[in-house]
Amino acid sequence: MALTPETLPRHELNGLPVRVVESDDASRVGLEGRVVIETTNTLSIEVRDNGESQVLMVPKSGSTFEFAITDEAAGDEKSSGTASKLADTQPDPSEESDESDGAGGDAAGCARASGHAGEGVAYVTVDGSRLLSRPARRTETNGDSPWQ
Amino acid sequence: MDIAAERIERLHELARAAAANRNDDRARYYVRLARRVAERNRLTLPREFRRFTCDRCDAYLRPGVNARVRLQNGHVVITCDCGDHARYPYED
């Protein structure tokens, strides 16, 4: 269960590159950076410009986020081996976009991936209301517990 | 490997990177979140994670920076800046 467009709403958001595509507050549209802190109702995004970093809090409800997924997104810090890894991941975008067609159907169209080919990056657009949950509880599937 | 185990792995990396940038509070937040994910999904935290985090204050430990590592007879003692000791055995 790697990080794919279908699993993203249940996966770790901290550390992922993100862009605010739509928001009720026009001043937040277009913010771009990395997620550093997640709470039930907000995402804090670290925006870097000209070497200065600034952490901005964006409410989940009323916003639409576009996450960029690469295979090495977990490493997050500027890894030196990026070039070789990117070469390995080149075939991936096509597969991911194929799967995402299915996801768009079953997930009520909330998470849809536009598999921009290129450097092995997939962009996943998620409605913020889909992420409204405690960070640790998003991963769980209801009714899966052996104790209930 | 399921999503929860992967999240823990990612949070471990994030905590390590945050601690390396002297961002201790953020590292602590990642460690706490990883612990919470593990307990809610009934997973054992990876050994490396257990050895590099403080049980008492959830700090991500960096030997020589915020943790002291001393060898005693047959065991290692790691002392966090908060004063907590963790011990584990070693073999020659």
From TrEMBL, chain A:
Listed InterPro entries: RNase_P/MRP_Rpp29_sf, RNP1, Rof/RNase_P-like, Rpp29/RNP1
Localization terms from the record: Cytoplasm
Region feature Disordered, mapped onto this chain: 70-148
The enzyme's E.C. designation: 3.1.26.5
Biological-process GO terms, alphabetical: tRNA 5'-leader removal
Broadest EC class assigned to this enzyme: hydrolase
GO cellular component: cytoplasm; ribonuclease P complex
Keyword terms of this UniProt record: Cytoplasm, Endonuclease, Hydrolase, Nuclease, tRNA processing
Reactions that this protein is recorded to catalyse: Endonucleolytic cleavage of RNA, removing 5'-extranucleotides from tRNA precursor
Main subcellular location: cytoplasm
Single GO molecular function: RNA binding
Pfam (any one): RNase_P-MRP_p29
Family: Belongs to the eukaryotic/archaeal RNase P protein component 1 family.
Function: Part of ribonuclease P, a protein complex that generates mature tRNA molecules by cleaving their 5'-ends.
Subunit structure: Consists of a catalytic RNA component and at least 4-5 protein subunits.
Protein name: Ribonuclease P protein component 1
Source organism of the structure: Natronorubrum texcoconense
Classification of source organism: Archaea, Methanobacteriati, Methanobacteriota, Stenosarchaea group, Halobacteria
UniProtKB/TrEMBL annotation, chain B:
Function: Part of ribonuclease P, a protein complex that generates mature tRNA molecules by cleaving their 5'-ends.
Cofactor note as given: Binds 1 zinc ion per subunit.
Subunit note: Consists of a catalytic RNA component and at least 4-5 protein subunits.
Chain residues that bind Zn(2+): C54, C57, C80, C82
Biological processes annotated in GO: tRNA 5'-leader removal
GO molecular-function terms, A-Z: ribonuclease P activity; zinc ion binding
Record-stated family: Belongs to the eukaryotic/archaeal RNase P protein component 4 family.
Name of the protein this chain belongs to: Ribonuclease P protein component 4
EC number: 3.1.26.5
Domain of life from the UniProt record: Archaea
Known cofactor(s): Zn(2+)
Pfam family for this entry, one: Rpr2
Presence of the UniProt keyword Metal-binding in the record: yes
Gene3D superfamilies: 6.20.50.20, Immunoglobulin FC, subunit C
Top-rank EC class of the record's enzyme: hydrolase
Keywords: Cytoplasm, Endonuclease, Hydrolase, Metal-binding, Nuclease, tRNA processing, Zinc
Compartment annotation: Cytoplasm
One GO CC term on file: cytoplasm
Reactions the enzyme catalyzes: Endonucleolytic cleavage of RNA, removing 5'-extranucleotides from tRNA precursor
Transmembrane segments: none
